[in-house]
Amino acid sequence: MKYLVGQTSTGTAVFSVNDGNAVNLSALDERVGEDLMGLIKTPGLVESLKSQMSDAPSVPVSSITPALPVKAPGVIICMGLNYVEHIKEGGYDIPDYPALFMRGRNSMMPAGAPMVRPAASETLDYEAELMLIVGKAGRHISEDDALDHVFGYTVFNDGSVREYQRKTHQWTPGKNFDNTGAVGPYTLTPDELPEGASGLKIESRVGDEILQSSNTANMIWNVRQIIATISAYTTLEPGDLIATGTPPGVGHAKKPNPRWLRPGETVEIEIEGIGICASPIVDETDPGKKVAAE
Questions:
Q1: Residue 236 and residue 149 in contact, taking contact as beta carbons nearer than 8 Å
Q2: Is residue 290 part of a domain?
Q3: What keywords were assigned to this record (predicted)?
C-alpha cells in the first residue's frame, strides 16, 4: 500500500494512493484518524477497508498538501556514517558501531513545506536518507525478526547546519534547527519494496544539478542490523522514526567550495519506488533585526 497523509479543504486525513489519485481512508473509517498511527496500531484495519476502497471516490494527489506521516513520534533516531564513501568525504574513520543521534519534533517538517536556513548560519546542508516507521514495539529485537517491526518506508532529508554540528563532538545542535528535517510525502508498506528497502536508487538534486546519487544497498548497516542495534539499548514503539544515514556527495564536502542550500532553491530527495521529497529553501527572519525594526 502507498499512503499519503495530507490536508484538503475537509481537514487532515490518510489517503491510499494509486497513480495520481487518492482515496480518503479516514472518511471510510474514523478509526484511521489523521495520521498513520491508526493504521499502525490496528494492523488489520486497512484489510477491512479494501472492499470499500474500490468504490470510494478519489481526489487528485495534487490537491493534497502533505502533512507529517506520524504527527507525534515517540522518538526520532538518526544514523550517521552509514555509507563508506560518505565517511571518507567527512574525514572520519569507518566505525565498528554506528553513529546515532536524535532529532526533536520541532526540527521536523512535511515534504513540500519550506526548509528554513537559520539566521544563525548559512551552512545549511542536505542529506538524502531512507527512513523507516516502526510498526510493532520491541526490545532486543533479533536481525531475523527485525523486518516484522517495520510498518513502512519513507523519504527523509536530514537538513544539517554544519557550522553548529561541528561546534562540539555531539551533533545535536546542527541536527535540530527548527524546520530542517523534511519527511515524506509517501509511505510505502514493506510488501511494495525489496526486502529491507535494499537496492533502491537514492538521489538528491537541485534542479538539474545532481548532488548525491547512490543505492540503499551500499549501507554499511542494513535495516535489519539498524533495528537490532537500536533495540539493544531502547524499546522501539509504534510510530517511532528511524533514519538510516546518507550517501556521499553532501554539500560540506564539495570541492573546491562547499555547496550550501540557498534561499530560492528547491532541494529534492528521491528514493526509487518511494517518491520525491521536495523542499523550497527560505531564510529565517532574524528575530533581533525584526525587534530593532519595530
A1: yes
A2: no
A3: Hydrolase, Metal-binding
